[in-house]
Amino acid sequence: MPNRRVSMAMVAQRAGVSGQTVSRVANDSPKVDPDTRARVEQAMAELGYRPNRAARALRTGRTHTLGLVAQTLATVGNSRMLQAVAESAASHGYAVTVVTLGAGGDIDDAFDRLRDQGVDGAIVLNEATALARDAASAGLRLVVVDSAPDERFTVIGTDHAAGARAATEHLLAAGHTTVHHLAGPEGSFAAAERERGWRDALAAAGIAAPEIVRGDWSAASGHAQAGQLSEATAIFAANDQMALGALRALADSGRRVPEDVAVIGFDDIADAAQFQPPLTTVRQDFDALGEQAVQVLIADIEGGRAATSLLAPALIVRASA
After folding, report:
1. Residue 175 sits in the same domain as residue 276
2. Which of 83, 78, 113 is nearest to 99 (CA)?
3. Can you spell out the DSSP letters for 41-90?
4. Which domain covers residue 140, as residue numbers?
């Protein structure tokens, strides 16, 4: 097809319908019967038709753009969530605008910027969720990933505590008398929930929780802090990157995994199976989480309601524990 803009009239001619019918399909009007809608959508696909977003925004008052707010995209979890959200949004006909806060970032400013860009709503990730509770988000529909319940926005997330309990119980079942925890940073909801699940599993077994060692999610912090766990025979790290750092620190000190120390991480990042040894970890379904965040937000934007639930993680047993 020549490089020219495909018009509604061209789609209408291909589908054998009126231009008004094409307009209704492009604007998701319910006033089109399913067979006609399918025929128009097929013609759009064949011709490579792309709706004019600016014109559609003027007609509908919506830009079909979602905002995404994150403290940083440097962590594996946040970058994977961004990809999942972007892919899911595109499949629903929405674009995504991203704002990162950085160190000391102002979430009120982030929300102001998103409002200025006319987004229809926004998704807030992980470490930024604590800031969202105190932000002036009036007029902006929000879905927050991993947060305590709040009547001002919809919360979705992973059942981090259940995943941490499963990891800790696995280590105890292997015969370890206790499990040490390499925790995530203070102020992180996910880190707090993973710590809670670890503590709950130890308490259920009648074991006093050892003092935690805290990192910042990075492999470097896991390597630096693992030196404080010299007496540990079992370590549950709050994410895979810190587990990777701990594995290196243990190797540097001559301690074998899993013979001397068993290690479990959390997230199941893409390279977890390539660690030495391959890492036992708790898998989060980032694709499902991104899909749910987008579905819930779009349902709110379009006047509907989507069911929400905590997504269950899965323990993936490999060679490290």
Report:
1. yes
2. 113
3. HHHHHHHT----HHHHHHHHS---EEEEEES-S-SHHHHHHHHHHHHHHH
4. 65-157+286-308
Residues 234 and 179 grouped into a single domain: yes
Other C-beta atoms closer than 10 Å to the C-beta of 208 total 8
User: Could you give phi then psi for residue 82, rounded to 5 degrees?
Assistant: -60, -45
| pTM recorded for the entire structure | 0.77
Write the pLDDT tens digit of every residue in 158-200.
999 999 999 999 999 999 999 999 999 998 889 999 999 999 9
Based on the fold, state whether residues 238 and 294 are members of the same structural domain.
no
Return the bridge partners of 236, or none.
181, 264
The β-bridge partners of 283 are 267, 314
Q: Which of 28, 13, 110 is nearest to 70 (CA)?
A: 110
Cis before 2 (ω within 30):
no
The answer to whether residue 1 is domain-embedded is: no
CATH of the domain at 43: 1.10.260.40
Q: What distance in Å separates the CA atoms of residue 176 and residue 165, rounded to the nearest whole number?
A: 15
Strands (E), the chain: 65-70, 95-100, 121-125, 142-145, 154-158, 180-183, 213-214, 234-237, 262-267, 280-283, 310-311, 314-316
pLDDT(66) > 50: yes
What CATH number is attached to the domain comprising 131? Answer: 3.40.50.2300
Residues 281-320 have pLDDT tens digits of 999 999 999 999 999 999 988 887 777 788 999 999 999 9
* Co-location of 260 and 184 in the same domain: yes
Give the chain's domain count.
3
- The reply to whether 213 falls in a domain is yes
